[in-house]
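Good morning C.,

I know you're traveling, so I'll keep this short. The sequence:
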Amino acid sequence: MKSCVLVLALIGLLVGIAPAARADLAAGIAAQESWDYETAYRELLPLAEGGNAEAQWRIGMMLHFGQGMPTDSGEAAQWYHRAIAQGHPDAAYHLGMIYHMGDPSEQDPVEAVRWYRFAAERGKAEAQFLLGDIYHYGWNGVSISITEAQHWYKRAAATLQADIANGEVYGQYFLARLYHAGQGVARDMREAARLYHAAAEINVAAAQMMLGYWYLRPTEKSADRELPLPDRDILTPDIIEAYKWYALAARHRRPHPDAEKMRDWIAERMVTEDLIEAKRRVEAWSPQPLPR
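The tokens, ready to paste straight into the viewer:
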């Protein structure tokens, strides 16, 4: 009887704790996605230390991308590994990014492919896409394999289409790239343009850079057969919009190295009235809210 009472008491404690933990996690996620990183860290850290995989991944992201703190990819990797031990695909994807896109001293093709594959096999579309890119172009000793690339591009396209249909907006840039290049899906420049715009409006820097290039149209016919320019009936050249998107891309914490250069290059070639309007559009712009 005594042991039964103890078990019931323990269950009572767990029932009381679990909703609070869920509330703290929800509060931490909401704060992080609202760029309130101080609150996010305060809510998420105790959960991460207590073994919550989602919180561990999110603390890793804050360290990885410098969200409210200095970047520390080494400590980020430790948190990612703790989440991966519980099967977290997003943590594996971001750990793959450290080995793929981090500082040259951190890059490791074997580890990048290993963790991208871990995430890709568990349905992470961005990891599927990047595996496709690695095998399509080759990277750092990884041999080109068109068969392997097409396998992952097709899986990425199917996953992204399903995710976006279910309200997941983060993959719009990657799906735009697939439609743009005709990788994994038939090329569709109109759909690529729609998705690039949607991604740019939620502040995806790579999409903003692409739109800057498209609106500028440095040549009437792109020499890049894989990533051509759209026809004019899809997107009309507009120097004001080109300036706007490059300027917005330049405002990111770690902007593309060409963003500021292209913004300034365009500004030097604009008439005063157009430059004033372009700057007005930049200041008036704000990212679309992310779905909850």
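Safe travels,
E.
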